[in-house]
């Protein structure tokens, strides 16, 4: 009985390592080699987004978060990363005639954590943030 339990646990650990670590790393590595971003239209689109961000906020020299210059398949993302929101705090405060600390407080309030504290990434609910900004700005 103990021997069977030990074999079962060893198989569980082995299969978890293979299917949870080795296989995903292998598939990701192959995909990176065969399908790296080489589409000129996408590269040009990213450059245009970067240029547009620099044009509307030329004094912001912080690194631009990737989710501000790329889009999902639909192009309609209801959330952005906290880094993307942080990148825009000073500009939003300036345009809405608010203190940057006030805008940062609203960003913090609109930030949702990981599901069950484990799954996904923290994200800022853009609709909720805009509604809070509209309420403060009026």
Please give the share of residues in helix. 55-70%
Number of strands: 3
Number of helices: 5
Approximate strand percentage: 5-15%
The rounded distance between the terminal residues' Cα atoms is 71 Å
Strands of the widest sheet, in order across it, are 1-3-2
Oligomeric status: single chain
Main sheet properties = 3 strands, antiparallel
Order of helices and strands: HHEHHEEH
Q: What is the averaged pLDDT score?
A: 91
Extract low-pLDDT stretches. none
**Rg from alpha-carbon coordinates:** 22 Å
Q: What characteristic shape results from the CA principal axes?
A: flat
Q: Strand pairing plus helix content: what structural class?
A: mainly alpha
Description:
The protein has 138 residues and is mainly α. Helices cover 63% and strands 5% of the residues. It has a 3-stranded antiparallel β-sheet. α3 (82-95) packs antiparallel against α4 and α4 (100-110) runs antiparallel to α5 (126-137). The longest helix is centred in the N-terminal third of the chain and has 33 residues, at 2-34. The relative contact order is 0.08. The model has no long low-confidence stretch (mean pLDDT 91).
Index terms:
single chain; 138 residues; mainly alpha
Could you give the topology of this structure?
Elements: H1 2-34, H2 40-56, E1 79-80, H3 82-95, H4 100-110, E2 111-112, E3 123-125, H5 126-137
The gist of it:
The protein is mostly helical. The chain has five helices and three strands, in the order ααβααββα. A three-stranded antiparallel β-sheet has the order 1-3-2.
């Amino acid at each position: 009985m103990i021997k069977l339990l030990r074999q079962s646990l060893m198989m569980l650990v082995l299969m978890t390592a293979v299917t949870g670590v080795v296989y995903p790393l292998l598939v990701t590595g192959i995909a990176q080699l065969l399908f790296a971003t080489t589409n000129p239209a996408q590269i040009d689109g990213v450059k245009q987004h970067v240029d547009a961000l620099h044009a509307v906020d030329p004094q912001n020299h912080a690194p631009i978060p990737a989710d501000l210059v790329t889009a999902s398949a639909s192009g309609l993302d209801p959330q952005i990363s906290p880094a993307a929101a942080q990148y825009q705090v000073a500009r939003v405060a300036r345009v809405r005639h608010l203190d940057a600390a006030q805008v940062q407080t609203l960003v913090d309030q609109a930030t949702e954590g990981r599901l069950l504290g484990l799954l996904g990434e923290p994200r800022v609910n853009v609709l909720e943030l805009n509604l809070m900004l509209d309420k403060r700005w009026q």
